[in-house]
């Protein structure tokens, strides 16, 4: 270690001296922290408080020990089968879930939430398939000769499977569905069963399950006896609602469903046309089906051309054919116009957001063209619209949030933005509810590449939190040097937000580097929130003081090296303050000499005035003592006026160009020059310089 010798002869170790200085510095900082802690007890202690040692629980009685041992054995027995369930498949061996786990998952609960339980939606889909089987194939089997004695067994088997689905829905699922009564969700099994049995839906489901197929033993197997199965339509519409609620793009299913309605109406019309052709006689006239080709496809083709009114069909001959064709045209115009209108509404609802975005862009571009906005600004506006739309799917999120209750707005804001705000060091330790209230007040703004978020010298009234993207802090002599790059989760501008006096100016330029999405919190909003949270307000004020102190300190670094030897004589001295120069009106001693000369001239003017005043006072006293006639008094009063003006007023001396500047005389004088600096009573105006000249008192 390097050592140095002091003039007194003692040797000191530089390393030990530096360590001692560091220890003293830390002890002083610790003392300052404790002083602040004593002044304001809101701040938390810098040292963590020791945690209390856990108390030992009392020994359980013998009976409880036995029960615990039994439970442990059951848990171990339940865990063992999971470890043994492995499946060997060729060269791979993987673990599979035991059968009990599958059974537990498939076990139905006592009651079912129809809005959140996906298993209930899957069951509704199965019942809907059975319902569509009856709707599509019952008219087909009744009209077309597709059901024959040779394939009746297959039709009967599929019908039995559909009936089983209907029966399970009636006996197992529907009595378990929860319902709302007076704002309360009823989840009692007895109440849900009673509610279902008293509803109209139960009556329709019960009628749809009546076994009219018994009549087949008397009249033969006829699909018309199953026509009551179509009364299960409530389950079909319920499935549509539940499926649209869980789909991300529900409009796709709406388009498919509307197309299905159209095809089903064409299917029914084809069946009715074949029945009418069979009634008139197959191939009896030009209008009826001629019996060639696939009967269903030929009838379906005729139905499409007739209902959509394409034309080109053979003219009806008989009265029955004319009436049938008129009704067919009327139904086609009415039904298909409604379906086409519904299809238009579905597609319009699917593209409503896109249409709104296009209309906003078109209106903005039209406004800019009307006011002759430069093309550069127009391109930046279009870029902002495109990025905002494609990044968040809408132009203003607040419009969507305003339609929801406050609690739902808070829940969405917590899920989306709480993770970002919670990382901010400034708000750590504050009340969680205060942060929740602040989340609802944050405003999201998108900045384009190169946009100035804030400029140097501006009055700061808000704080910025980076949600997405990056910003750069610029500095240097020309303001283009990148000092630091801030990324998502960073905060800047908090000094302006927490400054007590206000009017704090920005110290640097902040520019968006790429597209940046920022949260903005202004000072007024924060003050409105902190009114309800005084503890958090005190904590933020303390943190603001610490930030202001850190801002005022110079950045840590090595101390400046002072020149040694003759180089110290050539160091440039500090320049005289500008305010001091302005008060003196010159440089160096010349300004002081002028100031003293003006003081002497003022004293010369004042002395004759004082002597004249003294003479007039003495004369007035003498006149009071000796009575004088009025004429004499007037004569004496006349010369008084010129006496006061006997001394001519001092004229201002104008400096000539040839005259040399005044030089400070090295002689003693009775005047003393006093220069003082006092703080200004107004915040932000700095200090006031005062220069006074006083005469020395004679001892």
From TrEMBL:
Region (Disordered): 35-78, 602-699
PROSITE patterns: CNMP_BINDING_1 (PS00888), CNMP_BINDING_2 (PS00889), CNMP_BINDING_3 (PS50042)
The keyword Ion transport is annotated on this UniProt entry: yes
Species annotation: Atrichornis clamosus
Compositional bias (Low complexity): 640-650
Keywords (A to Z) from UniProt: cGMP, cGMP-binding, Ion channel, Ion transport, Ligand-gated ion channel, Membrane, Nucleotide-binding, Sensory transduction, Transmembrane, Transmembrane helix, Transport, Vision
Domain of life: Eukaryota
Membrane topology: Multi-pass membrane protein
Biased composition (Polar residues): 665-679
A single GO BP: visual perception
GO MF entries: cGMP binding; intracellularly cAMP-activated cation channel activity; intracellularly cGMP-activated cation channel activity; protein-containing complex binding
Family matches, as SUPFAM superfamilies: cAMP-binding domain-like, Voltage-gated potassium channels
One Pfam family of this chain: Ion_trans
Catalytic reaction(s) noted: K(+)(in) = K(+)(out); Na(+)(in) = Na(+)(out)
Name under which the protein is recorded: CNGB3 protein
Compartment(s) of residence: Membrane
Cyclic nucleotide-binding domain location: 426-530
Main location: membrane
Transmembrane segments: 120-140, 255-276, 322-340
One annotated Gene Ontology cellular component of this protein: photoreceptor outer segment
Ranges of compositional bias, category Basic and acidic residues: 61-78, 602-639, 651-660, 684-699
């Amino acid at each position: 270690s390097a050592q140095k010798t002091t003039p007194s002869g003692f040797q000191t170790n530089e390393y030990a001296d530096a360590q001692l200085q560091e220890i003293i510095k830390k002890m002083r900082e610790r003392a300052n922290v404790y002083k602040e802690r004593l002044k304001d007890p809101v701040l938390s202690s810098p040292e963590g408080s020791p945690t209390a040692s856990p108390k030992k629980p009392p020994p359980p009685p013998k009976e409880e020990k036995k029960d615990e041992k039994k439970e442990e054995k059951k848990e171990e027995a339940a865990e063992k089968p999971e470890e043994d369930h492995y499946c060997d498949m060729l060269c791979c061996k993987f673990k599979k879930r035991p059968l009990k786990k599958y059974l537990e998952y498939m076990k139905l609960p006592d009651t079912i939430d129809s809005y959140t339980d996906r298993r209930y939606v899957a069951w509704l889909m199965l019942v809907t398939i059975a319902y569509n089987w009856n709707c599509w194939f019952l008219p087909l089997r009744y009209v077309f000769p597709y059901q024959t004695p040779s394939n009746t067994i297959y039709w009967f088997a599929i019908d039995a499977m559909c009936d089983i689905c209907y029966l399970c829905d009636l006996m197992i699922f529907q009595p378990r569905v929860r319902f709302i009564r007076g704002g309360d969700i009823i989840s009692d099994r007895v109440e849900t069963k009673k509610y279902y049995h008293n509803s109209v839906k139960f009556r329709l489901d019960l009628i749809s399950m009546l076994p009219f197929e018994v009549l087949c033993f008397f009249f033969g197997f006829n699909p018309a006896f199953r026509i009551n199965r179509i009364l299960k339509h409530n389950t079909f519409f319920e499935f549509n609602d539940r499926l649209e609620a869980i789909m991300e793009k529900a409009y796709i299913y709406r388009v498919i469903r509307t197309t299905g309605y159209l095809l089903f109406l064409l299917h029914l019309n084809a069946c009715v046309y074949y029945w009418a052709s069979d009634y008139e006689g197959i191939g009896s006239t030009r209008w009826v089906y001629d019996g060639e080709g696939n009967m269903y496809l030929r009838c379906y083709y005729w139905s499409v051309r007739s209902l959509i009114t394409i034309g080109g069909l053979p003219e009806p001959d008989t009265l029955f054919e004319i009436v049938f064709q008129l009704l067919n045209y009327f139904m086609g115009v009415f039904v298909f116009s409604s379906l086409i209108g519904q299809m238009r509404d579905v597609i319009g609802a699917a593209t409503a957001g896109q249409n709104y975005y296009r209309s906003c862009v078109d209106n903005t571009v039209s406004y800019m063209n009307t006011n002759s906005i430069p093309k550069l600004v127009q391109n930046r506006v279009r870029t902002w619209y495109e990025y905002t739309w494609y990044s968040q799917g809408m132009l203003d999120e607040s419009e969507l949030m305003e339609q929801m209750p406050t609690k739902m707005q808070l829940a969405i804001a917590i899920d989306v933005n709480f993770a970002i705000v919670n990382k901010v060091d400034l708000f750590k330790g504050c009340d969680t509810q205060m942060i929740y209230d602040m989340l609802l007040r944050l405003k999201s703004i998108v900045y384009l590449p190169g946009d100035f978020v804030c400029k140097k010298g501006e009055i700061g009234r808000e704080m910025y939190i980076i949600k997405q993207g990056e910003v750069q802090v610029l500095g240097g002599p020309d303001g283009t040097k990148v000092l630091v790059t801030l990324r998502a989760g960073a905060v800047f501008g908090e000094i302006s937000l927490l400054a007590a006096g206000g009017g704090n100016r920005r110290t640097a330029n902040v520019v968006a580097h790429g597209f940046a999405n920022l949260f903005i919190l202004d000072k007024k909003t924060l003050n409105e929130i902190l009114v309800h949270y005084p503890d958090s307000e005190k904590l933020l004020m303390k943190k603001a003081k610490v930030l202001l102190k850190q801002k005022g300190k110079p950045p840590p670094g090595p101390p400046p090296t002072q020149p040694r030897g003759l180089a110290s004589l050539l160091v440039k001295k500090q320049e005289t303050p500008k305010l001091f120069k302005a008060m003196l009106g010159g440089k160096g001693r010349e300004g002081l000499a002028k100031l003293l000369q003006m003081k002497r001239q003022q004293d010369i003017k004042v002395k004759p005035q004082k002597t004249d005043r003294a003479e007039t006072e003495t004369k007035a006293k003498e006149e009071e003592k000796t009575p004088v006639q009025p004429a004499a008094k007037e004569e004496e009063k006349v010369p008084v006026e010129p006496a006061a003006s006997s001394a001519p007023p001092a004229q201002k001396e104008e400096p000539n160009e040839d005259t040399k500047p005044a030089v400070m005389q090295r002689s003693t004088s009775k005047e003393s020059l006093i220069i003082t600096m006092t703080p200004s009573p107004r915040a932000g105006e700095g200090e006031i310089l005062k220069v006074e000249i006083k005469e020395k008192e004679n001892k």
